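A quick word before the example. In earlier lectures we treated sequence and structure as two separate objects. From today on, think of them as two lines of the same record. Here is Thymidylate kinase written that way.
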Amino acid sequence: MNGIFITFEGPDGAGKTTQLRMLADDLKKLGHDVLVTREPGGTAISDLIRSIILDPAHKEMVDQAEVLLYAASRAQHVHQLILPALKAGRIVLCDRFIDASVAYQAYGLGIEVDIVKEISRYASSGLEATRTYILDVPVEVSMARLQGRASASGTNAQQLDRIEQKHVDYHSRVRAGFHQIAADHPERVRVVNANRSEMEIATEIWEDCNRLLEEHISV
Ligand SMILES: Nc1ncnc2c1ncn2[C@@H]1O[C@H](COP(=O)(O)OP(=O)(O)O)[C@@H](O)[C@H]1O
Ligand SMILES: Cc1cn([C@H]2C[C@H](O)[C@@H](COP(=O)(O)OP(=O)(O)O)O2)c(=O)[nH]c1=O
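And the structure line, produced from the sequence above:
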C-alpha cells in the first residue's frame, strides 16, 4: 500500500473539519493527490447509515445497534473508497475513524473496549491510520464552538445531532477516552492542543505531517 492514511479525531466542535481542510489545501498546493472523507459517511451507503445513526428522533437506539451501524458504515467506506485510494498512492484525510468508536461507544457508552476494537477491526479488515491527530479541547470549549457553528448556520441547540445532544458527563468520558487512546498508541497518535488559534494548530499539524511525508518517501 503506497498511500498515507491520516485521521482527525477529538470531540465534536474541536475544529477537526477546519484543520482537515487546511491541511488538504496545503498538501494540494504541493501537488499531492489528496482524498478528503469522513465517518460516518464517505459513500452513498455509509451516508444513509449516518442519517440513521445521527437522527435526533432515534432516541430508542440501543448501544449494540449504534456500535454495529458505525461499523457497517466503516466497512463500506474502507472497502469502497479508502483502500482503493491508498492502493492508488493517494493521501487520505479522514474526519474520524476507529478511535471515534473506541472513544464514543466504548469509553462514552461503557461498552467493552476490546469488543468495540474487534468489531472495528473486522469492519476495516485491520486497516489502521498512519497518523492520527487528536484535537484536544476542554468540553466547555467544544460545546461553545458547536453552539457557535449551529447559530452561524441558522440552527439551534435542539437541532444538534443525536450524539451532540448527549450530556456533558458523556462528552467528558469521551475526552478522557481520547487521552487513553493517545497513551496506548504513542507512535501513531499526536495530541494537539486545539484551544488555540486555527493558524497555530494548523502550523503544528503541518510540521508533523511534513516529517511523516519525508519518512514515507525515504522508506
Ligand atoms: N481554533 C479555533 N478557534 C475558535 N473556533 C474554531 C477553531 N477551529 C474551529 N472553530 C470553529 O468551531 C466550530 C467547530 O469547528 P469544526 O471544524 O466544524 O469542528 P469539528 O469538525 O471538530 O466538529 C466552527 O464554527 C469553526 O469555525
Ligand atoms: C465515526 C464515529 C463517529 N461518532 C460520532 C461522533 C460525532 O458526534 C458524530 C458525527 O461525527 P462528525 O460528523 O465528525 O461530527 P462533528 O463534525 O460535530 O464532530 O458521530 C461515534 O460516536 N462513533 C464513531 O465511530
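Notice the following. The helical segments are 16-29, 44-54, 63-87, 98-108, 113-123, 139-152, 168-184, 198-218. We will return to this example when we discuss secondary structure assignment.
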